[in-house]
């Protein structure tokens, strides 16, 4: 979509850039906790508490992750493109 100049490609780029900025800001060691928060917002992690020794992001970041997740979900829902998550994996284990 981005290469084709479609607006959805630029909107997707904006959301992903914002997520990257949120995750990879200083102190960079907190990026692992930020990724855990992202997974928590998506229901992929039961809690957002990192292992001891990992730098933490503030709990207020959860609201930012939710906002980006909502924007991303709305954007993807507005497209008629197939759900890439539903595709078969490229490699299968027999």
Q: Please provide the count of β strands.
A: 0
Largest sheet: none
Sequence of secondary-structure elements: HHH
Please report the distance between the alpha carbons of the first and last residues: 34 Å
- Strand content bin: under 5%
The low-confidence parts are none
Give the count of helical stretches. Answer: 3
* Residue share in helix: 40-55%
Question: Could you explain how this protein is built, in words?
Answer:
This protein is an all-alpha fold and 94 residues long. The protein is 48% helix and 0% strand. The chain has three helices and no strands.
Give the topology, please.
Elements: H1 7-23, H2 31-41, H3 61-77
Helix pairs in contact: 1-3, 2-3
Which labels suit this protein?
94 residues; mainly alpha; 3 helices; 48% helix; elongated
Summary?
The chain is built from 3 helices and no strands. It is mainly α and 94 residues long.
